[in-house]
Task: structure prediction
Amino acid sequence: MHFIEWYPRGYGVGFKIKKKILETKSEFQKLELYETEGFGKLLVLDGTVQLVEIGEESYHEPLVHPVMLAHPEPKKVLVIGGGDGGTIREVLKHKSVEKAVMVEIDGVVVDISMNHLGIDGGLLKRLLEGKEPRGELIIGDGVAYMKNSKEKFDVIIVDSTDPVGAAKLLFSEEFYRNAYNALGERGIYITQAGSVYLFTDELLDAYKNMRKVFDKVYYFSFPVIGYASPWSFLVGIKGDMDFKKVDLERAKELDLKYYDPERHETLFQMPKYVRELLEGSCC
Result:
């Protein structure tokens, strides 16, 4: 038995499966959980791989730590999506964080992750019970929350599905303007932006939209287990901040497996033709 996620142009990423653990539908999407032969549990939403248990840090670490370490003192963090708990788990590794708010639209994702996946190490349960003093979990629309929030955040992390279909809203100019407004005077925003090779057009569109809004925009890539690597990420800066530099002293407090702060500059390697497309794009 196997599971294959098909990307554009007939490219697939597949896993050998021992068994299907569950399949269900929420108000928003179809959810499947499998036990793989070599990577632990596999979470699938609407036919797309969200994570594999063994190696999920290859996604969550580059999504969280580069921006957290680039900000001089990230105290308030907003996570949109991330129902499996991996992103907010990484955020709370930073001692400077006083408050981290996670807004996930699909409570079923949280329930399955909490009861069957467990990469959060019990964090999701503590958040739901109000027993995590630095964290808050809201089951609701993250887009609306960010737009209407009176609170200002130092870091906003969008852990969403791929930049296609319904999720395209999360890569729109309007969404980025709302994110910019929700940041403090100095703030940093990050989103995953899909496969470098197979979602190149979507990456370019998102980059163009971000450049219309943020003071500076950076792009980088990282090899993510379970995805059609390399995987792209986009970073928006509000105010005076240099994403090319990270705090290596604070990095020593973190227990990381994939992202290496001492080799931060390697993030910015991008295939030549993609870099030329990005740098040649205009707002």
Remarks:
- The chain has a mean pLDDT of 95.
- The radius of gyration is 18 Å.
- Residues 57-70 form the longest helix (14 residues).
- The chain is about 30% helix and 30% strand.
